[in-house]
Specification:
This protein is of the alpha+beta class. The chain has four helices and 16 strands. A hairpin with a 3-residue loop joins strand 6 and strand 7.
């Protein structure tokens, strides 16, 4: 089974691993377990028994806490070179993760960062897109939405789904990575957003209840709870270390 072009992993780079473990366990319901990686602290968060993502320390001093997603490719080195050729950047050259796979940290031509990944083995069991604790939506706030779409469609074979005209905010383009269900959307970022970036939405039982858990656990609400097309409810948030994320639920 090919996972090319799909998001297969999510990673929080944070200034405080223990605090992040506690926060997301309280807000999303993940179970945090030490990966026991030699030479570094790395936590894997699980929804039940299924691994969803990892938590690690920020790799450079003064780097802000943030989430990053891994997109599966057939050849990390070739894809990294292609990204650079098409106006993107390579933040970390292709590197092996012992017994796991090979990855590179790159940026698209509009400034949003993500990782390329090729695993050494079959992917572990994954959650259904609507399962609690899974990443239910992927949203790109791009420096240029149209330019970003051309880039991701070319490199990962993404397919346009429906689009929504949001007036002064521009067009919100939904996309698919195969199959019938849209798995994300992209748009030109709002002027007040300082940099381009991906925002990941974690499935919860209730967006309103999760918002209360966020503030109680020391995080901040950026926007919401609010209803979006399709009857879903979302909240956009910051964790206590400043990393932006969002939650989504089927009802309020």
């Amino acid at each position: 089974m090919s996972f090319k072009g799909k998001f297969v992993w999510y990673e929080l780079m944070t200034t405080d691993i223990p605090a992040a473990e506690k926060f997301y366990s309280q807000v999303v319901g993940w179970i945090a377990k030490d990966a026991q990686m030699p030479g570094m602290k790395y936590t894997i968060v699980h929804a039940g028994e299924i691994p969803v993502g990892g938590i690690m320390s920020v790799p450079m001093p003064n780097m802000p806490s943030s989430w990053i997603g891994y997109i599966a490719v057939d050849d990390v080195d070739a894809e990294a070179a292609a990204v650079k050729k098409d106006g993107g950047v390579i933040h970390k050259e292709p590197t092996d993760i012992p017994n796991v796979g090979r990855f590179a940290v790159v940026g698209d031509p509009t400034g949003a960062g993500f990782c390329l990944f090729k695993g050494n083995m079959d992917a572990p069991p994954s959650l259904a897109p609507n399962a609690l604790g899974a990443v239910g939506w992927h949203e790109l706030h791009a420096g240029d939405g149209a330019k970003a779409w051309e880039f991701y469609a070319k490199h990962f074979g993404w397919i346009k789904d429906s689009a929504m005209d949001m007036g002064a905010m521009g067009v919100y383009q939904l996309f698919k990575t195969g199959g019938d269900q849209a798995m994300g959307g992209m748009m030109t970022k709002a002027p007040q957003m300082p940099v381009s970036g991906w925002l990941y939405y974690f499935n919860v039982d209730s967006a309103a209840a999760a918002a209360e858990r966020v503030t109680k656990a020391g995080g901040k609400i950026a926007n919401g709870p609010m209803e979006v097309p399709g009857g879903q409810w979302i909240v956009q948030c910051f964790d206590p270390q400043g990393a932006m994320f969002a939650v989504v639920s089927a009802g309020k």
